[in-house]
Amino acid sequence: QITTLINHKDKPKRSDKTLQAIQRVGQAVNLAVGRFVTVGEAIANENHELKEEMSVACIEARRAGETIAQLTDVASLDHPESDSHITIFTDKTGVVKAARLLLSSVTKVLVLADRIVIKQIITSRNKVLATMDQLEKVSSFQEFVQIFSQFGNEMVEFAHLTGDRQNDLKDEKKKARMAASRAVLEKCTMMLLTASKTCLRHPDCESARINKDGVFHRMRLALEQVIEIVTDSRPNGENEMAPISIYSGIREFKNKVEGLRENLYFLSKENLSTMLEVILEHTEDFTDSAYTSHEHREHILELSKQAKMELEQLVSVWMQAQNQKTKDLMEDLEVAILKTCQCMNDLKREVHSAATSLAADLLKYHTDHMVLKALKITGVEGNLEAVAEYTCKLSEQKEQLVEMCRLLRHVSGTEPLEITCIHAEDTFQVTGPQIISAAETLALHPSSKIAKENLEVFCEAWESQLSDMSLLLREINDVFEGRRGEKRVYLSLPRPGKHNANLKALKPVKLDTEEQAKIAKLGLELHLLTSDVDSETEKWEDQENEIVQHGQGMSSMAYSMYLFTRGEGLLKTTQDLFHQAEIFATEGTKLASALHALSDQVHDDKPSLLLEAEKLISMCKQLQITAKASAQGKSATFTKVDACILKTRNVMTLLCQLLPLCCKLLRKTKAGNGCLKPAPPWKEDRIRTATNARTPERRVDTFGIKSLENHVTNMTFLESK
């Protein structure tokens, strides 16, 4: 909104519509700042150490918002007596200064609030650690029950804080690391319960103590990693050295090779040779693995040899081209670049095939969980020899799965997936020995119900990780085959290729900066209309009414389309926008059906309601036709985007008129029962999730908070014998 004001072009003639739009933008900025500052002041009152800094920043922000509102109060320009009134037209520098002050003060508030959030997470972690120390030392069940109840509540609080933080992280790598740490804490919380109970029941059992110590150690490591991510630091100031995968090495190598087309002198041949050596060293993880097939091993060795030869040829032509830039030499260089890159692509494809085929075979082989079942049976029987035999088999299985994770990491394709592979490897490494110690404890105490329950919990964690590996393998294959873009949290988007026959012929693109600037005004109008629609829907007492639900769904989708015009939000490409426009139009058609149903219940204004419903159907059909029409080329695609946004705006304008009319008619029909309620002063959560009204809500990741809360509630049933 501020950018729109700053970029506003002065024109000699200003229409009433332009003046009203400018005034609405200024008022919207001021209202938004007011809500923002109210939250900032509330935070300041709760955190005395930062109260002064926060209060100053809030005052500055409020002052800047009010200045912008005053300078955009242009409704009185038509009156001659207001000639002395200073506005955006007479003092544009005033708006620029106010905008700078606003952005500066808002940034200060955000930074201070962020410091408070980090402090809250660290404080919560410290509480959890202190309670863990107490849990580790308890010697009676009664004391354990009391402390674990407190521990459970503290873990729920920590889960909420870190879940919010994970959602706020912009760095996908950090987000993946946070998710991995929180997954460990989720599983280990239940493990800690059963392992501690087993240790209390059998205090002299060494395997039970080893089992419990392993859980505590892993939880402390996970808690420490969360704090490292939150504070963006490493212990003792050491730098994080992430292992390099074959994929990332090949990607960087190819970029350097292809860069020779632009500049023959930007790197040395030694640099390029070293990069290839590192990649080929990593391929030894495949060729040296006992689980790589003979065929894959031979192909990888052959391609490694070919890569060295192609690089030698490239370096030879490259050196000649540096001395003499002839047409023939440059053509030879281009051929050498293409052959080198093709060889690296073949190598990449081969290691991917080797890793994913091994993973598919292992996951299929271990789906029956025969070893885990055997450990449970022999443990209950107290058969120590059989347990020892099956623990050896589990150790072999663990080594296979760890090797599988290492190879998958090389071909994962993205940093978040690499981190997920590393997390899976760690999980198998740690959980394997914990299952063994739990099984040994059960074999020594075969009649112990708690020892049996403990083994079940660790086996479930193993089975869960195997299940996660199947999903991970599918995602790695999706990335390799270029299907990554189909996976969206955005539930109202249809899957490409499933709903539209024209999709294969279309290339998804993004709007460039110039196109975003052209469409900014239209997008802003759409944004203001979504606010109007939201205000109208909030007035309905019956929020379950079909008309309200369709209206809210359409408003959410329109808001996501507005974000697209700014280069933000979940709609990343023009194709995403067209998909969303189709769903928006479908939702509008459903709303029209609900209006027809309402017309059967009312007597007053029935013709006008039916007329508006027909108008809505017509507009939605036009939008669907536009969204489905093919557009080839940059110019045609932008024209189609512009048309979709324009027609969406027209539908939203009609919706703004329909909602109050429907509410009025319903109020009359219900003879004073009332369908209105006062609008809330402000929304606490303005995050938009554009979901189809018929689509189930997205699951919120709070690392098993519900199950943990239930368990804390039921702690009174813990055995106390």
UniProtKB/TrEMBL annotation:
InterPro entries: Alpha-catenin/vinculin-like_sf, CTNNAL1, Vinculin/catenin. Keywords: Cytoplasm. One of its GO terms (molecular function) is actin filament binding. GO terms for cellular component: cytoplasm. Gene3D superfamilies: Alpha-catenin/vinculin-like (1.20.120.230). It holds the Pfam family Vinculin. It comes from the Eukaryota. The keyword tRNA-binding does not apply. Its main location: cytoplasm. One of its GO terms (biological process) is cell adhesion. It is found in: Cytoplasm. The keyword Cytoplasm applies. Belongs to the vinculin/alpha-catenin family. This is Alpha-catulin. It comes from Illadopsis cleaveri. The lineage of its organism: Eukaryota, Metazoa, Chordata, Craniata, Vertebrata.
